[in-house]
Amino acid sequence: MRKVMLVDDEYMLLRGLKLLVDWKSLGLEIINTEQNPKLALKYLHDNPVDILISDMNMPELSGPDFVAAAKAIRPEMELIVISGYSDFDYVRAGLQQNAVNYLRKPIDTDELLETLHGALDRLQAQQQQHQIASLAVQTQTRTLVTTDQEMERQQLIDALGIQFDPTTVVRLIGVLNPLPPKDLVSYLQILDAVKGFYVEGQDFIIIFQGTTDQLNIFINEAPHQIGAERRPFLIGAPIQDETQLHNRYLQLRREIARQYFFETAAGLRMMLPDTQQDTPLTLPSYSEVKKALDGVDLATFSAWLSQQFEAMKRANASDLLARQFALVVLLVLSDRLTAFDNKSAVITMINHATDVSEIKAQLQRVAKLAAQQGNQQFSRNVVAMRHIIQTRYSEQLSLAMVASELHLNAVYLGQLFKQEVGRSFAQFLNDYRVDVAVDLLRDSDQDIGQIAETVGYQNSSYFYKLFKKQTGMSPGDYRKAGVLSSC
C-alpha cells in the first residue's frame, strides 16, 4: 500500500477528503492527517510518505514555503496542491516544486481520481528506475570483487565512487541469510558508506567505506530482525588498495562457507588481516587417529569426535580440512568392519554435507556398526596374511604369491580371508596401501608418483583413481588441504 498524508488547516476538508474516494481500492492508505504544516514537516522527517496532498494557504506557514520544505525532506514524494484561490503565484509555486497537479476547492471527485492515478503511475515508473539502477550497481559490485582484470576494476571503482585513502577504510562485509532480505536492502540503500552490495546465494556481499564510528553505527542500527544478534555479520579486513579486492572477496567466501559448516551462532566476527594469522592446524594422520581410537567405546568416540571438530572451529579450520579429517576417521572405522557395503555412500555424504552435524551423525552410525560387530578373532592363516600385507605392502603382492609362501591353496585361502575379514585379499591390500598413502601425503615431500610406487603401485594413474574412490578426493587435493592456516 502506498502511504498518503493529508495537510490542511480546515478539519472538515480533511474529513471530507478521507470519504471522497475509496483509497484502499487504489492501493493507498492515509497514514496521517495534519492541520499544522509545521507538525506535518516534523512527521515527514521521521516517516516515509509516497503522496502528500496539501492546502496552499495555511496561517502557520505559507503554502509555497511548506511545499518547498516538504520536497526538500522527501524529494521523491508526489505532491498534490489544493487551493481555493485563483492566485496563479500560489499555483506556480506548487508546480515549480514538482507538484503533481493543482486542485481547486471544492474538489471534484473525478479530477482527484485522475490526479491520484497519475501520481501512482509516476511512483511506479520511479520505482522501476530505482530497481534498474540498483540492479546495475549490484552487477558492478559483483563484477568488481570477482574480476582480476586491472582496467575493468578501475572503471568499476570510479563508477561506484570508491576511494582508497587513509581517512576512511574500505572493507568487504558479509551478512549471512538476512530475513527478511528486503529490510536489509532498504537499509543499505540509504547509507552513503555502502558503496555497493549484491546477493550471492542467500548472503549479502557489501562494499563498505567509512570510519570505525560509521562501521559501528552500520552494525548497531541495522534492522533488529536481521542485526548482528540474529545473523552473523562478517567484517572483512581493511583493504589498502584495489589489488586486494579479489583476494579479500575469496577470503570472505571461505569464511562464509566455514560459518555455515561449523554452524556458528549469530554474532559479529572480525576477520583477521593478512598480517595476523591463527596457529596453523595440522590434519591428524591415519596412524594418529587409529591410535587415538584404539579401545575407545561408542560414548567416548562421540565425545572425542565433538572435541575434534570444536578444536577445528576455534582454530578457524576450513570446511575442507574438517571433511578431510572425517575421511581419515572413516578409513580407521571401516578397517574395523567385516561388513561395510556403503562406504562409498558415506564418503559422498561427507564431501557434500552442508554442516558438521551431518558428518558427525554419519561417523557415529559407522562407529556404532563397528561396535556391534566387535573385535574379530582371526585364524592363524588370516593373521599371517594380514601381517604380510602390513609389512610388505610396497611389494607386488598377490593372493597366489602369499598362498605359495604359506603352502596353502589360493582359492581356499582367498575364501577364508573374505569370510573372516569381510573383504577380499585384493580389497584389503588396496585399502591398506591407501591408508599408508594418506600419511605419506601429509608427512613426506615425495611427489604423488613416488608415493604411488612406495605403496606398491607402478601405475600412478591407477593409484590416482583408487585413492579418489577410497577418499572422495584426488591425492593432490588431499595434500593441498592437509595443513590450513586461518583466513
TrEMBL record:
Keywords in alphabetical order, please.
DNA-binding, Phosphoprotein, Transcription, Transcription regulation
Domain Response regulatory intervals: 3-120
Q: Where is the HTH araC/xylS-type domain?
A: 383-481
What would be an example GO MF term here? DNA binding
Residues that span the membrane, as ranges: none
Q: Which InterPro entries match?
A: CheY-like_superfamily, Homeodomain-like_sf, HTH_AraC, HTH_AraC-typ_CS, Sig_transdc_resp-reg_receiver, Tscrpt_reg_AraC-type_HTH
What's a Pfam family this protein contains? Answer: Response_reg
Q: Does the keyword Protease apply?
A: no
Record flagged with keyword Transcription regulation: yes
CDD domains according to UniProt: REC_YesN-like
Residues recorded with modification 4-aspartylphosphate: 55
**PANTHER family xref list:** ARAC-FAMILY TRANSCRIPTIONAL REGULATOR, RESPONSE REGULATOR
Name used for this protein in its record:
DNA-binding response regulator
Species this chain originates from:
Lactiplantibacillus pentosus (Lactobacillus pentosus)
